[in-house]
């Protein structure tokens, strides 16, 4: 078989069609996770989050966190012994690895939670709590390692 322009153009278009079909197949099988399903409602309430973040800046000593292995230690301000709220470990790359905890403080205004089964990687620590009907919110990037 002799190579000429007709064979070259046919080969080019044939390879292009195969490439496009392969890209369509890969894009259909790619997992896409939204950050949350109710992002619109959360956006409407975002001013509350801004106010809660501001309330944290008014504290003498804010929330402190420490990572030791697969345990997250949180220390709340001393005056916040009756704090109520949630701790959310958000994994941006996979929603199945998200963890949510209820705040349960000991007598030293501390709490700890173990995240043994979580693979290492980037997480966002989101702590939303209230004390004496004043809301507070802290968001920090953390890296869990084994």
Structure characterization notes:
The protein has 146 residues and is of the alpha+beta class. The chain has a single domain, classed as Immunoglobulins (Immunoglobulin-like, Sandwich), CATH 2.60.40.10. It has three helices and seven strands. The strands form two sheets. A four-stranded antiparallel β-sheet has the order 4-3-6-7. It has a three-stranded antiparallel β-sheet with strand order 1-2-5, with no helix packed on it. The longest helix has 24 residues, at 5-28. The mean pLDDT is 87.
Radius of gyration: 25 Å
The number of strands is 7
Q: Hey, roughly how much beta strand do the residues contain? A: 25-35%
Unreliable segments (pLDDT under 50, ≥5 consecutive)? none
Give the CA-based shape: elongated
Global structural class = alpha+beta
Count the helices. How many? 3
Q: State the CATH architecture.
A: Sandwich
CATH superfamily: Immunoglobulins
For this structure, the CATH topology is: Immunoglobulin-like
The ordered string of helix (H) and strand (E) elements is HHHEEEEEEE
In percent, how helical is the residue content? 25-40%
Q: Write down the overall mean pLDDT.
A: 87
User: Which CATH class is shown?
Assistant: Mainly Beta
